[in-house]
Amino acid sequence: MPASPTKDNTAVYLKGEWTGPGTKWLRGRKRIELAMLFGVSVGTIDGWVVRSGMPKASAKDGYYLPAVVQWHAQFQGSNKKSASDKSIENQEIAERTRGRKLKNDQLAQGLVDKGEVIRAHDQLVHLITSRLEELPDAVASAVPESVAEIVRAVVEAQIDLARKELATSRLGV
Q: What is the value of pTM for the model shown?
């Protein structure tokens, strides 16, 4: 490899040619060599030109390297966050995380164990069933004897229907 053409050795030897700030213009396979120079992809170079204002003279002349290197230094400087900015951002993330964890903990405390719900349901079904079994006699004693047996039969039929519905219900758990 021949010696660097620049006094401060800022040029890079790529594809058999010296490329860099001291050589002024990057011609030929411009984007690829520029991407190699900055250690990024060709897509990143295209994005910098379109969205970030990286200077490009023309398709014929390519990139004027002193301007591109200066732009890159300013671009990198503006994209870097200071340690205090990162610290504040990390504190905000930690605070949001703590808030979410607290909310999840509060929600979890409000939850009841599935087994407890099933036991409570079964106890209620048993209580209702036992009360319904007493109902035909209570209703029959409250009406005249002439209709007592008819009322008892109607109430028992309704109770049997209610028992079947209660037996098949499990709260969907």
A: 0.33
Residue closest to 57 by CA, chosen among 17, 101, 25, 79: 25
Owning domain of residue 48: 12-79
Cβ burial, residue 49 (10 Å; 0-12/13-18/19+):
middle
- On whether residue 103 sits in a domain, the answer given is no
Neighbours of 48 (CB within 10 A): 21
pLDDT digits (tens, 9 = 90+) for 108-152: 787 778 888 888 888 888 888 888 888 888 888 888 888 888 988
| Residue 133 maps to a domain | yes
Question: 97 in a domain, yes or no?
Answer: no
Hey, what are 31's tokens?
Answer: 């984007």
End of a domain among 27, 61, 79? Answer: 79
- Rounded Cα–Cα distance for residues 64 and 14 (Å): 16
Number of folded domains in the chain?
2
Determine, yes or no, domain membership for 63: yes
Cα 6 to Cα 17: distance, rounded to the nearest angstrom: 13
Burial of 69 (0-12, 13-18, 19+ CB in 10 A): middle
